[in-house]
Amino acid sequence: HTVRRQSIKRGEPRQMPSLPHTAESTVREEHFSSRRKQLEDYLTKILKMPMYRNYHGTMEFIGVSQLSFIHDLGPKGIEGLIMKRSGGHRIPGLNCCGQGRMCYRWSKRWLVVKDSFLLYMKPDSGAISFVLLVDKEFNIKIGQKETETKYGLQIDNLSRSLILKCNSYRHAQWWRQGIDEFVRKHGKDFLTQHRFGSYAAVQENTLAKWPTLCLQATDAVFFPPLYYLRLSPEIFMKRPVVEGNRWRLDCILKRKA
User: Where are the stretches annotated Disordered (predicted)?
Assistant: First the structure.
């Protein structure tokens, strides 16, 4: 903290703003609006100080990450820390520790909800661990009976069943409702079948160009929208996943190279 304080640029605020000293229970109703303004000013001053704005505890409290305000990633959905169970990929042979027995581990991850996908990152480094696409099989379940986990939340798509563990049933309901309402409002085009079996709807009169890289006279590689490429090279070009990683983007490019 000494090094951080010395590195603060001139002109930037150096002192922590102070919260109102009056207890919440003693504030009169006619003073509620001014009280809210005091708290708003306190948070605004905190967020103007880079040392505290970039602190992971501040970001967790407000529910934002480094991906929250990138316009090309679409509208901002809910975000927050979750406990993720390992496994869940719909590929035969994964996660088995023996016949009839499964072993799992739980990891703390930062979950981000967007219009056409969900992703989770490592909280310490911000590295993206997995991207779950919204598709026609997208579904959310809660409850111990469905997830085999107390206060569990299960998110399904064509390629994976993602199991999350929440702090309470109310917390699980909050995640389920937030994800479901956001996806159905902003990503409804990805929830149904489209022309030629595509996961995406036809877009008319757009400026985007989706190039095709021709490698042979009888073979080609299709490139999805660029924002998917920036997120993860592990997107599957052919779904559902029935041949392991053969049709994963990075494996396709490696094979063709």
Answer: 1-30
